[in-house]
Design a protein that fits this description.
This protein is an all-alpha fold and 248 residues long. It is built from ten helices and no strands.
């Protein structure tokens, strides 16, 4: 069972993540977009979207730091375990709360606005449920276990297992002793990667980097009298067919 959950499942999800993106690009390039609904409702979107994206960037950065950077590296550059723990817990709590508020506003927008609700697809609903589950598990681990509870050093177990997956040396015994909420969060994270290619999240790989070096678009106002109205094509045609002769 441990082999299935902590070895087979991660590699299967990663394979779906890669192959799914290739399939999506080859067969659904017109759907490779955010499917924005800003024109349908902008008040809640104007507040919820920045909170969600800023919170997501902070959470992703925190996960990358905690999972990919060994504790020995941070200690070598002068960051003590106590300082790292304080930064991770409070930083994760703040960015996590931003993510929660933003996600709640975005979900409420889908429920409250009838125009937005009508363009919400089944995959959008699945995505929001998956996001909500991941955020709930992550906040439970950060706030419930590390901030209000006894704490858990995931860098000595989960992080080592996670890096081992990409080195093809996953140590399953490191996950069996982890708290249940961390186990569910890890499983949910890989399942979320498998879902990613089939949702609107693919738009993150299409960042408009060309905006950084393309020339500015210059708008100039039109001055002077407006141009005279041009006759309709039908009027021009009738005038050509029935010319008016001038008398002497």
């Amino acid at each position: 069972m441990n082999t299935l959950v902590w070895i087979v499942l991660p590699y299967l999800c990663l394979a779906v993540f890669v192959a799914g993106h290739v399939w999506r690009w080859r067969h659904d390039q017109f759907g490779w977009t955010t499917h924005t609904s800003q024109l349908l409702e902008s008040r809640l979107l104007r507040l919820g979207s920045p909170l969600f994206h800023l919170g997501a960037f902070g959470v992703i950065g925190g996960h990358a730091m905690g999972l990919l950077v060994p504790a020995s590296v941070t200690e070598r550059i002068g960051i003590s375990e106590h300082l790292y723990h304080l930064t991770a817990v409070w930083g994760g709590t703040v960015t996590g709360l931003m993510l929660v508020v933003g996600l709640v506003l975005l979900i409420a927008r889908r429920l409250v606005s009838g125009r937005v609700r009508r363009v919400t697809t089944t995959m959008d609903k699945i995505l929001y449920v998956a996001l909500a589950a991941m955020v709930a598990l992550g906040m439970t681990a950060t706030v419930g276990t590390n901030l209000l509870g006894d704490g858990y050093d995931y860098r000595e177990s989960i992080a080592v297992w996670f890096r081992g997956v990409f080195w093809f040396q996953p140590h399953t015994e490191l996950m069996t002793g982890a708290p249940l909420v961390y186990q569910l969060h890890a499983i949910g994270g890989f399942l979320f990667l498998a879902l990613w290619p089939f949702t609107r999240l693919v738009h993150v790989w299409s960042a408009p980097l060309a905006y950084l070096w393309r020339p500015y678009v210059v708008y100039r106002s039109r001055r002077g009298a407006p141009p005279a109205a041009q006759p309709a094509p039908a009027a021009v045609r009738d005038a050509a067919r029935h010319p008016v002769s001038s008398g002497r």
